[in-house]
Amino acid sequence: MTDLHPFTHDIPADRLPALLRAMPKAELHMHIEGSLEPELIFALAQRNGVAIPYASVEELRRAYAFTNLQSFLDIYYAGASVLLKEQDFYDMAWAYLERAAADNVVRTEMFFDPQTHTARGVAMQTVIDGLHRACGDAEAKLGVSAALILCFLRHLSEEDAFATLEQALPFRDKFIGVGLDSSELGHPPEKFARVFARCRELGFHLVAHAGEEGPPAYVWSALDVLKVERVDHGVQSTKDAALMRRLAQERIPLTVCPLSNLKLCVFPDLAQHNLGQLLDAGLVATVNSDDPAYFGGYMNENFIQTFAATGLTAKHAWQLAANSFEGSFVDAPTKALWMERLGACFAQFAGR
Ligand code: ADE
Ligand code: ZN
């Protein structure tokens, strides 16, 4: 690992949870629809007169027992069906942004899935306006820098993705990039080669889910065919030594989501998660919450549970926070400012 902060050795292990909570960090992989808590799903269902097939918040929460990615996605898309109005999208995003601020997230790059909403007759403008208004308020009222990344659903066709891009282009100043999510197996990155090429021409940042459940070959094609700047998840990369060398050499960030991987049975338990292996191999790995309402934890919970289970230390904490700033889509002076704040936080914990 490079760029070790000099104070990390002075921070005792029992101070680690407090340090993880206090350190400034960026979240680079979360789906805003995955922040819908059961209570808000029920409140919005009532407000909008939408029927949901669960009798209570408790019954809905009990359904969150997933065996793989698809078993989660089925419930996740059903939950999003309560979102109809601009205010609904605002309320959902605002609730997440308040939680992010409480976790000392200073920057968040939030995914949204417009096709989940436009397929139900919700206008693209309704979705983007509500989310974007919450991003503006986050900066003004919470001091959190927030941006949006539009994700194409990979179980749908590339033609559908092109149509979605077309619908979103009138609002292109309100999102900074595009991504690729939903069912990975059987839907390789190559399926979206042309639409990603178009988005590249348009100047959007490019990311894609790859190597969550899918093979290392999907990570290679996300890099070589889609030309992504970051890989979302990417944890299967450890199965391919040449890929690991490439990711480290090119400093391609991996946006890892430990509690998501646990809940979707990508790893049998957190102690066997490969985050430490990724960091020790010099990859720009980061920690993120993915779908926090469904996977049992926002950012700090992901850090605290993963560190407790795997024995990661203060030096890893510093590296993860530094990686999150390096991997974020902000300008260099802003990154430098957040790195200074990170250093000040560690110095305080080291008693300097
Ligand atoms: N959409 C929401 N969460 C996702 C995940 N973990 N993988 C793929 N698509 C998603
Ligand atoms: Zn994801």
Describe this structure in words.
Helices cover 50% and strands 13% of the residues. By secondary structure, it is α/β, with parallel strands linked by helices. The protein has one domain (8-349): Alpha-Beta Barrel (TIM Barrel), CATH 3.20.20.140. Zinc ion binds at residues 29, 31, 181, 209, 232, 290. Zinc ion binds next to strand 1. One of its GO terms (molecular function) is hydrolase activity.
Layout: helices, strands, pairs:
Blueprint: H1 16-22, E1 25-31, H2 38-48, H3 57-62, H4 69-79, H5 86-102, E2 105-112, H6 114-118, H7 124-142, E3 145-153, H8 158-168, E4 177-181, H9 193-201, E5 205-210, H10 216-226, E6 230-233, H11 241-249, E7 254-256, H12 258-263, H13 275-280, E8 285-287, H14 292-295, H15 299-310, H16 314-327, H17 332-349
Parallel strand pairs: 1-2, 2-3, 3-4, 4-5, 5-6, 6-7, 7-8
Helix pairs in contact: 1-15, 5-7, 16-17
Binding site for substrate: 291
Family: Belongs to the metallo-dependent hydrolases superfamily. Adenosine and AMP deaminases family. Adenine deaminase type 2 subfamily.
InterPro entries: A_deaminase_dom (IPR001365), ADE (IPR028892), Ado/ade_deaminase (IPR006330), Metal_Hydrolase (IPR032466)
CATH fold assignment: TIM Barrel
Bound molecules: adenine, zinc ion
Strand content: 5-15%
What would CATH call the class? Alpha Beta
Poorly predicted tracts of residues: none
Radius of gyration: 19 Å
List the strand order in the largest sheet.
1-2-3-4-5-6-7-8
Termini separation: 23 Å
> Main sheet, how many strands, which sense, barrel?
8 strands, parallel
Architecture, according to CATH? Alpha-Beta Barrel
Shape: globular
Structural class determined from secondary elements? alpha/beta
- H-E string: HEHHHHEHHEHEHEHEHEHHEHHHH
CATH homologous superfamily title: Metal-dependent hydrolases
Overall mean confidence score, pLDDT: 97
Number of contiguous helices:
17
Number of domains: 1
Query: Which range best describes the helical content: under 10%, 10-25%, 25-40%, 40-55%, 55-70% or over 70%?
Result: 40-55%
Number of beta-strand segments: 8
